């Protein structure tokens, strides 16, 4: 067997820690290298135990999870982070994504998703539980007058055309190239061309990167 995925758990409820430990110990490719009941000295602990993945709650009594992420960003992210929270407020989700989080799970369905999330994030992907993903998708609203107060079309940033932004919206809703071509009456080749142009303009590698960029830069 290859190297195990090294995981650190942070939650202020011991029962949550114990539950996660019970689930993760069943997986041969996982190793829980530490856990914390608060955010004190978390950066130092992560760099010491060389964790690959941090699973962390946002709401903690001493140091807020968002403040922890801001400190990580200032120092340099010590590892990839998955948020495990009972909060599913879209504003919070977008804020933590801007701070470099790679995954966000609702505690209600953590037991079903946590192992898939860890492996996906370890591979360099993003992972959201269905309820979180739906909130992100639903935040993609009409684009023609987004932010406009005078009835005119608001300017679109990053040199993205209106058509490209339409395609970005559909990509975020998990439309395939075939589905997008039907929705917009374009050929599949044209859709692929727009997709490639978007990735080049936004300097991302794939469709997940497109959605992540849109969230980070308030295009949704």
Automatic annotation (TrEMBL):
Record-listed 4-aspartylphosphate modification sites = 57
**Residue ranges of coiled coil:** none
Q: Where is the HTH luxR-type domain?
A: 152-218
Is Phosphoprotein included in the keywords of this UniProt record?
yes
Q: Which Pfam families match?
A: GerE, Response_reg
Which keywords does this chain's UniProt record carry? DNA-binding, Phosphoprotein
The Response regulatory domain, residue ranges: 6-122
Q: Does the keyword Transmembrane apply?
A: no
Q: Which SMART domains match?
A: HTH_LUXR (SM00421), REC (SM00448)
Write down what this protein is called: Response regulator
User: Which species is listed as the source?
Assistant: Pseudofulvibacter geojedonensis
């Amino acid at each position: 067997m290859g190297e195990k995925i090294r995981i650190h758990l942070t939650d202020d409820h011991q029962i949550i820690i114990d539950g996660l430990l019970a689930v993760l110990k069943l997986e041969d490719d996982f190793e829980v290298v530490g856990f914390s009941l608060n955010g004190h000295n978390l950066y130092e602990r992560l760099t010491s135990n060389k964790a690959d993945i941090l699973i962390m709650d946002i709401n903690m009594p001493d140091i807020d999870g968002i403040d922890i992420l801001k400190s990580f960003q200032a120092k340099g992210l010590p590892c990839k982070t998955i948020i495990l929270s009972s909060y599913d407020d879209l504003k919070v989700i977008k804020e933590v994504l801007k701070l470099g989080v790679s995954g966000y799970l609702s505690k209600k369905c953590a037991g079903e998703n946590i192992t898939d999330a860890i492996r996906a994030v370890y591979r360099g992907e993003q992972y959201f539980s269905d309820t979180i993903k739906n909130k992100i998708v639903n935040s993609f609203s009409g684009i023609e007058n987004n932010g406009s107060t005078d009835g005119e079309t608001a300017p679109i940033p990053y040199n993205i055309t209106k058509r490209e932004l339409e395609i970005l919206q559909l990509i975020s809703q998990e439309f395939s190239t075939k589905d997008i071509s039907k929705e917009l009456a374009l050929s599949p080749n044209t859709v692929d061309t727009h997709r490639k142009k978007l990735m080049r303009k936004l300097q991302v590698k794939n469709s997940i990167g497109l959605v992540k960029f849109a969230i980070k830069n308030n295009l949704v």
